[in-house]
Amino acid sequence: MSEPLSYLGVALARPKVGFFELSSCEGCQLQLLNNEATLLDFLNLVEIVNFREGMSERGDNYDIAFVEGSVTRKDEITRLTEIRKNAKILVALGSCACFGGVNQLKNRFRDLDWVKKEVYGDFPIETMEVHPLADFVQVDLSIFGCPIKKEEVERIVTDLVVGKTVRHPEYPVCMECKANENICLFELGEPCLGPVTRAGCDAWCTSNRRGCWGCRGPAEGANLKQLEKIMHTYGFDREIILDRLECFGGFASFTQTAPTQDKKSPARRKKS
Amino acid sequence: MIFKVFKKQELARLHELLAVNIVVGPVVKGKDRNGKPLYDFDVVYDFNELALDYTQTVHSPKRFVLPYHETLSTFAVSRDGWEKHVDLNVYRPLVFFGMHACDINALNKLDLVLAQSTYPNPYYMGKRKNLFIIGIDCNPEPQCFCRSMGTDSAIHGFDLFLTDLGDGYFAEILSATAFDLLNQISCKDPSAKDLALYKQATNGKNKHYTAKVETSDLTKILDLEFESPAWDAWGEKCLSCGTCANVCPTCYCYGVEEHVDLDLTHASKTKSLHSCNLIDFAKVAGGHNFRPTSASRLKYRYYHKHRGFVEAFEESLCVGCGRCGAACLADITPPEVIASVRGKE
Ligand code: SF4
Ligand code: SF4
Ligand code: SF4
Ligand code: SF4
Ligand code: SF4
Q1: How far is B277 from chain A (nearest CA, A)?
Q2: Chain B residues touching A189 at Cβ < 8 A
Q3: Is residue B70 in some structural domain?
Q4: Could you give the CA distance from residue A50 to residue A57 in angstroms, rounded to a whole number?
Q5: Are B237 and B301 in contact (CB under 8 A)?
Q6: Of A219, A179, A245, nearest to B278 (Cα)?
Q7: Which residues lie closer than 8 Å to B68 by C-beta, 6 or more apart?
Q8: Does residue B81 belong to any structural domain of this protein?
Q9: Is ligand 4 within 6 A of the CB of residue B242?
Q10: Going residue by residue through chain A (272 aa), what tens digit of pLDDT does each one get?
Q11: What's the domain count of chain B?
């Protein structure tokens, strides 16, 4: 563990990393602990100073902060600002941190008090509408996915340690789906957001015969207009498209401008 | 060329003789939303799995010679250097049982670039040289325009080509291996009746081509229509998804990535097939993208196939299988794209 790191004889610094969670299911952090086969190598590559999911000691001296979850309470803004101050690199880990994630579904309702009552009953919790990290602090790197793919995080961390540029695919999921020789789900009569969603998951869902829900957010230059036409051609109505586009928050800039008239329930929350 | 005929039941015996190798052939993968069977190539273990009367496979046979992802080399990295290991990823000879003319021609086109060029690609060559190909006749689907591209019959690039005569098969033998193989099953020389049936089959097929691409002077027209507004119109529909290139039997563009393992003692170089339609395809170091619009990328795919390649090799890099158009969710098909650029007749 304490042997100095090197690659091709070049000494490398072992970065101190911290893992933090705001409002989330902690599934992304769990993903990291999931693969026992590579866990020891991963732990050798970095020095973990803060990881509630995996250890009990805490430290505030870290180079890279991985922040999971979205911001939905005032005190989380304070914590996030604090983390940002301590970290050289702040990484948004998973779709909640990147886009608000499943949590931001509550932003769809006009009446947040009604939502709170439905969820928490008579034990209300002070929450506000859901925000991604980037609404409050500068995010240096995003790792998309709900949940993240452990292999991708391992690759990104290795690249950071050896000093390689971290790169995300800009193209959509279809590219990976077809490289896996899947029959297109539209052909089988199911809707899919693959044509507009950023790849990188190796077409995780569609390779298991589930349509994509867009958890990694939009591909660069995503052609939403054409997706709408495709959905229409294959007989899926707007509600189905919107349900999917709104699920993880990555498509917020598209859905907020979408006309709302044929959306029946729940009442869509308009930006006022 | 040597021709033979044999009874249908002999085909199972042929398969049995070849089954010591890996056999790949068309199989049914499911049904589409309208109940039509969907076919693809896959490894076949049982003769009865083979769907030799298939219409067209969704994906091309490409991946068996050009895998979507392929590790080119691995490295053992130590403090004072590295050791490189190269594996061409060729395991056993592969038998293709039932390939249509378009796909045979597609492999011949890939050869021009990957096998017969100044720097042949050893990963491709290793797999290509170890193929035994049994071709089979087909019935044109509505999307097939192979006839326009001159790829509706296969002249070379196979070992054996079968045409269904009803009771039996008419076999065209092109290699010594195929000849030896047919000696091990019961077959005979074609009779005058067999010949008549063969001609009938071929002539019958010719009536069924519906899709068409006009290729006369196409390189010149493409040259002149570089700024045609038609490209923008198609670009607006295009999802830049790369599906067309992935299903195409002749698209061979790729990217190479280096990957360092988590333990820092191993690394690898992986090649992945790419598509010129992808937004990151033309992005270069420093972040500049010299084909930033979907229209310019889509146009480039057509220029490579129908202009650049023709000028270099005097034939097109498209075999007219129509898979790209059939798979494109935005309904972008070569016959329509090319017609729109050519303008009205
Ligand atoms: S199933 Fe989805 S991801 Fe796959 S090709 Fe079809 S639309 Fe694209
Ligand atoms: S297929 Fe879509 S929903 Fe599934 S993991 Fe990939 S991006 Fe997320
Ligand atoms: S493209 Fe031509 S050769 Fe290929 S399946 Fe269609 S008709 Fe047959
Ligand atoms: S032409 Fe069709 S299949 Fe090809 S990238 Fe564009 S949308 Fe995808
Ligand atoms: S460009 Fe389309 S029609 Fe031509 S060979 Fe490729 S997939 Fe077939």
Answers
A1: 9
A2: 32-33
A3: yes
A4: 7
A5: no
A6: A219
A7: A179, A180, A181, B246, B272, B273
A8: no
A9: yes
A10: 568 898 988 899 999 999 999 988 888 888 888 777 888 888 889 998 878 766 656 667 889 999 999 999 999 999 999 999 999 999 999 999 999 999 888 888 777 778 778 888 887 778 888 999 999 999 999 999 999 998 899 999 999 999 988 989 999 999 999 999 999 999 999 999 999 999 999 999 999 999 999 999 999 999 999 999 999 999 999 999 999 999 999 998 888 765 444 433 444 444 33
A11: 1
Interchain pair A183, B242: CB under 8 A:
no
* Nearest CA-CA distance, residue A97 and chain B, Å: 25
Contact yes or no for A31/A56 (Cβ under 8 A):
no
Q: Which chain A residues are Cβ-neighbours of B82 within 8 angstroms?
A: 8
| Atom 5 in ligand 2: residue holding the nearest Cα | A204
Record: contact B278-A227, CB cut-off 8 A: no
Atom of ligand 5 nearest to the CA of B145: 3
Complex-level ipTM beyond the 0.90 threshold: yes
Q: How far apart are CA A59 and CA A16, in angstroms?
A: 10
> B80 and A9: CB-CB below 8 Å?
yes
Burial of A256 (0-12, 13-18, 19+ CB in 10 A): middle
- Whether residue A219 and residue B264 make contact (CB cut-off 8 A), yes or no, is no
Assigned domain for B325 exists:
yes
- Are the beta carbons of A175 and B330 separated by less than 8 Å? no
Return the number of CB contacts < 8 Å for A and B: 127
- pTM of the entire predicted model: 0.92
Give B28's strand partners.
Answer: B39
> Residue B25: beta bridge partners?
B42
For residue A207, the distance in angstroms to the closest alpha carbon of chain B comes to 14
Is the distance from CB of B6 to CB of B188 less than 8 angstroms?
yes
Contact between residue A70 and residue A102 where contact means Cβ atoms under 8 Å apart: no
Bridge partners (DSSP) listed for residue B7: B168
Q: Which of 82-121 (B) contact A at CB < 8 A?
A: 82
In a domain, B258, yes or no: yes
CA gap B154, A60 in Å, rounded = 69
Q: Write out the residue range of the structural domain in which residue B312 sits.
A: 2-75+90-342
**CB-CB neighbors (< 8 A) of B79 in chain A:** 6, 8-9
Q: What are the distances in angstroms from CA B181 to CA B174, B178, B272?
A: 12, 5, 36
Q: What is the pLDDT of residues B187-242, one digit of tens each?
A: 999 999 999 999 999 998 888 899 999 999 999 999 999 999 999 999 999 999 99
Task: Provide the total of helices (H) and of strands (E) in chain A, helices listed first.
Answer: 10, 7
B43 CA from centroid of ligand 5 (Å): 23
Q: State yes or no: cis peptide before A147, omega within 30 of 0.
A: yes
- Give the architecture (CATH level 2) of A5-162: 3-Layer(aba) Sandwich (3.40)
Residue ranges matching CATH 3.40.50.700 in chain A: 5-162
Measured in angstroms, how far is the CA atom of residue A194 from the centroid of ligand 1? 5
